[in-house]
UniProtKB/TrEMBL annotation:
CDD domains: GGDEF, PAS. GO terms for cellular component: plasma membrane. One of its GO terms (molecular function) is diguanylate cyclase activity. PANTHER family: DIGUANYLATE CYCLASE DGCM-RELATED (PTHR45138:SF9), REGULATORY COMPONENTS OF SENSORY TRANSDUCTION SYSTEM (PTHR45138). GO terms for biological process: cell adhesion involved in single-species biofilm formation; negative regulation of bacterial-type flagellum-dependent cell motility. Residues 285-355 form the PAS domain. Residues 447-582 form the GGDEF domain. NCBIfam families: GGDEF, sensory_box. InterPro entries: Diguanylate_Cyclase, GGDEF_dom, MASE4, Nucleotide_cyclase, PAS, PAS-assoc_C, PAS-like_dom_sf, Rev_trsase/Diguanyl_cyclase. This is PAS domain S-box-containing protein/diguanylate cyclase (GGDEF)-like protein.
Length: 585
């Protein structure tokens, strides 16, 4: 299953109104620049508070913007967002040594041992580094759908920011300690050499490529496409105006500084706008969550990674009898029945790995009573890390009682399906299952299995003389004799009609013959009148067989042998026990 994508500047679509606003503002800045072209080189007075105020704002805005992009990266793992974070951090940080080394601001020649060319080279690094960062961002766009793993995000982010800071430090050392070796690109506040040296045009071309790349690849689809394109375009105007103005403190120079401020402010402004909008949505979602959480009919709670309860809903109190205050900071395992604690702890640990859990358990009410519940444990994942878990307790006591009654009913039905209704003995189906199972066990253990087959003598005449009701009573009495005889030795079953049998696993022929004779005597001893019997009472004939199961024999053989012995008993006078070998008891 795909993981849900968290909202970021790549997933929030730009509205038509936002696109129109961006196009309109860009067109306005372009027209304003064109209108000011004839006057850009006009010299104005030096306003000393202007530059430090402007740089302070730009440094602050770019660093805050870089931080916000970094937070978006930590949540989403998006490499392009990390590149933007590094770009804006660089842009904000590089302005600091730029203003510190600018002449006539903090000292006549600037701080940090600055030379005449130091400040302008910081400007070149600032305005050249920004488009380079944007071009890197455009190259990273092909990886925007591949998130950096949660485990590596922190390290990757740290290394990126460390690289940006290190670059600023290296440039600061280079431009201050080796300022005499810097090529001269400014003279008496005039910087036409930036153009003639080719440095200015290279920066201008990189910015133009950045604007074109953003328009081509982004196509103004998302809010990031719209406002980043506008910010880079305004920055492009800044460099254009600076190069045309040609000197510090000219109208174009001041105009370019304002453009730099506007460029820095665009992204931060949209961040603040979107944060305010998302805060409103978050407040609404929070209310929805509270409604779902607090008014859920099931017990719902949240725990931290140590399994301490952080919040519970009203249903928790109703289910277990504790107040909300009594739950907070308690270990969730304290409410689990002792024999279920280990399994519950295992499922919680599994949830902390990011795997939702669903299992049955038993919890303890405040009064000590036990409640069957179904527990669902859902990991709480923030910025890709599991910080705790939600739990849902569903009372399934009635369900378990219903299941128990159903199981009991099924057991009764199963027993009924295996028992002969009249005699209470096993029916033929159960007999076949039991015999096959015991046959296999005896074969495995190399033990014999014996079989007694019984038939009531002249039973048809009994039914004809006394009626079927008396016949049924007779069968029931005989069935009880067989059930008592087999109780601790095997299985008594009704074989069919007036025939009954006993399966005797791991019993010898001698044992079986003795049992059969005892059964014959007990049946005769019941003294059930029978006018067609030579003894005047109901009697039975029994056939006995014993086999050692082997690969070449089957369970039916022991029945066939007993049946042949029974036939011999009937043929030779009835009311007797005969073994398969033909030996009369």
């Amino acid at each position: 299953m795909d993981k849900p994508r968290l909202p970021n500047f790549f997933t929030i679509k730009a509205s038509a109104a936002q696109r129109k606003t961006a196009y309109g503002f860009g067109a306005f800045m372009l027209l304003l620049t064109l209108a000011a072209l004839p006057f850009l080189s006009r010299q104005l007075i030096e306003v000393k508070p202007f530059l430090p105020s402007f740089i302070a704002l730009v440094a602050f805005i770019d660093c805050v913007t870089g931080y916000l992009f970094y937070r978006q990266y930590r949540v989403s793992g998006s490499l392009p967002l990390l590149v933007l974070a590094g770009t804006f951090f660089y842009s904000g940080l590089i302005t600091i040594p730029h203003i510190l080394t600018f002449p006539h601001v903090f000292s006549e020649t600037g701080l940090l041992g600055a030379g005449k060319q130091t400040a302008v080279w910081f400007w070149v690094s600032w305005h050249g580094g920004f488009p380079i960062g944007i071009l890197f961002f455009l190259m990273a766009l092909k990886y925007k759908n591949i998130a950096i793993s949660v485990r590596n995000r922190k390290l990757t982010g740290f290394l990126t920011i460390a690289a940006v800071v290190s670059l600023v430090v290296v440039l600061t050392v280079l431009f201050t300690q080796f300022n005499d070796a810097l090529p001269e690109i400014i003279h008496d506040n005039g910087y036409n050499s930036i153009i003639t040296s080719g440095i200015g045009p290279v920066i201008w071309i990189m910015l133009l490529l950045a604007v074109i790349g953003l328009l081509k690849l982004g196509k103004m689809r998302t809010i990031l496409d719209v406002w980043l394109t506008l910010a880079v375009f305004v920055f492009f105007i800044d460099v254009t105006v600076t190069l045309i103005a040609g000197s510090r403190y000219s109208l174009g120079w001041y105009f370019a500084r304002i453009n730099s401020f506007l460029s820095a402010s665009v992204i931060l402004s949209i961040f603040l706008y979107e944060m305010n909008r998302l805060y409103a949505l978050l407040a609404e979602q929070q209310q929805r969550y509270q409604s779902l959480f607090m008014h859920n009919s099931d017990a719902v709670y949240s725990m931290n990674k140590e399994r301490q309860l952080v919040s519970v809903n009203n249903a928790c109190s109703e289910l277990l009898g504790y107040t909300k205050q009594e739950y907070i900071h308690q270990n969730g395992g304290n409410f689990i029945a002792p024999e279920y604690k280990e399994a519950s702890a295992y499922h919680f640990e599994q949830a902390l790995t990011g795997k939702p859990q669903n299992y049955e358990s038993v919890v303890l009410h405040k009064d000590g009573s036990r409640i069957n519940v179904q527990i669902t444990t859902i990991p709480i994942i923030i910025e890709g890390e599991v910080t705790g878990a939600f739990g849902i307790l569903k009372d399934i006591t009635l369900q378990k009682e219903s299941e128990q009654k159903l199981n009991e009913a099924n057991l009764v039905l199963k027993e009924m399906s295996l028992i002969d209704a009249m005699t209470g003995l096993a029916n033929r189906r159960y007999l076949d299952q039991y015999l096959e199972e015991k046959w296999q066990e005896c074969f495995k253990n190399e033990q014999p299995i014996s079989f007694i087959l019984l038939d009531l003598d002249n039973f048809k005449g009994f039914n004809d003389s006394y009626g079927h009701l008396e016949g049924d009573q007779c069968l029931m009495k005989v069935g009880r004799v067989l059930a008592d005889a087999a109780e601790f030795h095997g299985l008594a079953a009704r074989y069919g009609g007036e025939e009954m049998c006993i399966v005797l696993p791991e019993r010898t022929i001698e044992f079986a013959l003795l049992m059969a004779e005892e059964i014959r005597k007990e049946i005769e001893g019941l003294s059930i009148p029978h006018q067609y019997s030579s003894t005047g009472v109901v009697t039975a004939s029994l056939g006995v067989s014993t086999i050692f199961p082997s690969k070449d024999t089957g369970s039916n053989e022991v029945i066939d042998h007993a049946d042949q012995a029974l036939y011999d008993a009937k043929r030779t006078g009835k009311n007797k026990v005969v073994s398969y070998a033909g030996v009369n008891s």
